[in-house]
Write a structure and sequence with these properties.
Helix content: 55-70%
CATH class of the largest domain: Mainly Alpha
Shape: globular
Order of helices and strands: HHHHHHHH
Oligomer: single chain
Distance between the termini: 41 Å
Number of strands: 0
Largest sheet: none
CATH superfamily of the largest domain: RNA polymerase sigma factor, region 2, helix turn helix motif
CATH topology of the largest domain: Rna Polymerase Sigma Factor, Chain: A
Length: 179
């Protein structure tokens, strides 16, 4: 029954202590938060950590959320901040520690490496939209709810991002780029 409730109602109930309502909000947005974290961190496990930390902070601060219909946008901002904090922590070795070893895993093939490099070249907003749409499979209206931008803006970001990706991939030697 909760899965049919609008976010606004779930937020109001969760703010009053209803754990089931908060669990439903987490279920709705978990995949999107992992996609946002992954766009920043490029590591699925760290992205999951960022999403979980974002929901933990959201649970504590939920009563302060005034625009109850903006939960997705709000938790996405928290998740971005958590992911950036994790990224900074990953880049800064602790005192008396050796810097982290070079990742021993190799790209499965050269094409994967080129695609990852192309994604890394995108602006943060474009990368988020790409991850939410194609990695997490969200619809335009769900992306709109998460990012707080119109579906038309999402379409524009996707179109520009795909154009930039195709251009980079062509210049990188991948001749068979779908438009």
């Amino acid at each position: 029954m909760l899965d049919r409730q609008p976010d606004r109602v779930l937020v109001e109930q969760a703010a009053r202590g209803d754990g089931d309502s908060f669990t439903e909000l987490c279920r709705r947005y978990y995949g999107a938060m992992v996609a946002i974290g992954h766009a920043i961190l490029r590591d699925r496990h760290l992205a999951e950590d960022a999403a979980q930390q974002a929901f933990a902070k959201a649970a504590v601060h939920l009563p302060r959320l005034r625009q109850t219909d903006q939960f997705g946008r709000w938790v996405a901002a928290i998740c971005r901040n958590e992911a950036r904090d994790l990224l900074r922590a990953r880049r800064e070795p602790l005192p008396d520690e050796e810097p982290p070893a070079v990742d021993e895993r190799r790209e499965s093939n050269e094409s994967d490496k080129i695609v990852r490099e192309a994604l890394d070249r995108l602006a943060a907003g474009a990368k988020e939209v790409i991850y939410l749409r194609f990695y997490d499979g969200l619809s335009y209206d769900r992306i709109s709810a998460v990012l707080g931008i119109s579906e038309q803006a999402i379409n524009g970001r996707l179109r520009r991002a795909k154009r930039k990706l195709a251009q980079y991939l062509r210049h990188s030697g991948l001749d068979e780029v779908d438009r």
